[in-house]
Amino acid sequence: MLYQSSTFGNAASLEKPLLLPSNKITENSIKNLDRIPAHETHKIGVLYIGPNQVNDEVGIFTQYKRNIDKSTHFIGGLDSEEGDGNFAYMWEDDVMQVIFHVATLMPNHDNDPQANKKKRHIGNNYVAIVYNDSRNHIITPLDQGSNRVCVDCKPELKEPLGHVMDPKIVSDKSLSILVRQWALHCNLAAQIQKSLSNKMPYSSNWLERLRAIKRLKEKLQKENEMKEEEDREQGSGRPQLNDFTEFVIMRKKKGNGGSGNSVGD
């Protein structure tokens, strides 16, 4: 059910909810809305490069599992029925979800010796967390339970990511928190950069959901206006119950009760 709450904004200026008709248009509109996640979603790879593996096939590092929660409806393109495995690791808070593409959780296939099926997910991500035991860069373990963390990015992202470009020395205890936050900043910057390169302003999932609700509302209002105009032309005295509150009141007066979907912005 879509509803308009009087607890937000100026209650005196809020419009009343509108009753959604039970038809195919409403059903399709709600299905389209359900395809837009309520959370901000991010996909991030986790890589491990062992000693002397700079030029070898990289392994996948899963030490960060302890800070990654259970699986969720957002699976970041993974498909349990198409050979990507049965589990994935994610982290979430009240406003965002992050899916980690960990290749060791995906099964090996005899017909794919180069593990291209695994790499396609990480290769399509904007950001990868690299734990580098070959003493080069990105995340490098140091002595005394500490790590050196730095960010490597494309030239066009150096300006928006200037606040994280300087290397940091961080303890093992705080490593996952810092790296996750940096990865989220980098992924968001990459998403915005891509939208600008396509000459399309970046919009969050929240904004896209609001736009979808407003489109549905505008469509319903136009349909109601057309029906009212037709009734006036036909001289019908039947009242138009386009207001959800009035509709419920009239149903209760008739002793029928009833409920319905409503939409508001």
From TrEMBL:
Residue ranges that the Swiss-Prot or TrEMBL entry lists as coiled coil: none
Gene Ontology CC terms: nucleus; TSC1-TSC2 complex
Pfam family, one: Rap_GAP
Any one biological process term the GO annotation gives: regulation of small GTPase mediated signal transduction
Single GO term (MF): GTPase activator activity
Residue stretches of biased makeup (Gly residues): 256-265
Sequence segments annotated as region (Disordered): 221-265
PANTHER family, alphabetized: TUBERIN
Name of this protein: TSC2
Originating organism: Lepeophtheirus salmonis
